[in-house]
Design brief:
The chain has about 250 residues and is α/β, with parallel strands linked by helices. The protein has 10 helices and 8 strands. The radius of gyration is 21 Å and the shape is elongated. The protein binds 1,4-dihydronicotinamide adenine dinucleotide and (2S)-3,4-dihydro-2H-pyrrole-2-carboxylic acid. This is Pyrroline-5-carboxylate reductase.
Length: about 250
């Protein structure tokens, strides 16, 4: 399948790497040049198909617009006049409004992938117009299931799905950095601390997924009565750890 990109910054390039990781041909990935250094750089690095006009995207089944919210709408409008197929946006763009101005063989859907798509371990939330054609839904799902899990959600829930899956990797990265600081403070080498913490996170997630136990049950399996873990848990409560995360998700989502 040929897939086009307008915008190859952080998330655009993560999706491109995800497609390459899933063994898509590099020449099936079309990237709009438009004088943007990031597009030229990634095209040269991975031998992608560089194009200079939106019309050239007509060879593609889907075109992903991955630019910031403020410029996405104008780009989608221009693209809709020159391209026929599936238009996707990782940023702005009103689903109903954009779709209402498109030709019959063209459609627009919104996607929120997260950065782990680049290694096939991502999550992508997708919203379609309510009467979207099943073949369009199948094509978009096919693109993103190559890179991880896909959730098709109503448009009014896309924001919170995008926050919980797409923003929280940054929260977890901050947590890794803080845990690493504490490990270093107590004598572990920096590089060793990252390895231990990242493996711990991976194992903890895998155990939660495999056991299907609630997080509270899994926590109880670690907290020996009178032991060290519960002292740490109590300190997290005292310092507002859970409340901080709840507030962070709400701040990102609203
Ligand atoms: N970074 C992430 O994890 C995620 C980002 N998003 C959303 O995706 C959008 C893009 O985010 P990032 O990739 O992080 O931003 P970014 O700033 O890293 O990338 C945007 C890219 O678009 C290019 N660009 C801007 N205008 C252009 C145009 N007219 N034609 C071609 N290229 C153009 C820029 O040169 C830049 O390389 C934002 O709306 C963001 O909210 C959504 C999900 C996850
Ligand atoms: O920070 C942002 O706005 C985007 C949305 C999801 C991840 N990054």
């Amino acid at each position: 399948m040929k897939i086009g990109f307008i915008g190859t910054g952080k998330i655009g390039s993560a999706i491109i790497k995800g497609l390459l990781n899933a063994k898509n041909s590099s020449q099936d990935i079309y990237v709009y040049d438009g004088g943007h250094k990031s597009a030229q750089k990634i095209a040269a690095e991975f031998n992608l198909h560089l194009v200079n006009s939106y019309t050239e995207f007509n060879a593609c089944q889907a075109v992903i617009v991955a630019v910031s919210g403020s410029s996405a709408e104008a780009i989608l409008k221009q693209l809709g006049q020159k391209y026929h197929g599936i238009m996707l946006s990782t940023g702005g763009g009103d689903l109903t409004q954009i779709n209402s101005g498109l030709a019959q063989d063209t459609t627009f859907a919104k996607i929120v992938p997260n950065t782990p798509v680049q290694i096939g371990s991502g999550i992508t939330a997708i919203s379609f117009i309510p009467d979207e054609k099943p073949e369009v839904i199948a094509t978009v799902k096919k693109i993103f299931t190559q890179m991880g899990a896909v959730y098709v959600v109503p448009e009014n829930l896309l924001g919170i799905y995008g926050t919980v899956a797409g923003c929280t990797p940054a929260f977890v990265d901050l947590m890794i950095a803080a845990l690493s600081d504490a490990a270093v403070q107590n004598g572990i080498k920096r590089a060793d601390s990252y390895q231990i913490i990242e493996q711990m996170l991976l194992g903890t997630s895998q155990l939660a997924l495999a056991s299907k136990k609630l997080p509270e049950e899994l926590k109880d399996e670690v907290t020996t009565p009178g032991g060290s873990t519960i002292r740490g848990v109590a300190k997290l409560e005292e310092t507002g750890f859970r409340n901080a995360l709840i507030q962070a998700v709400n701040a990102a989502a609203n």
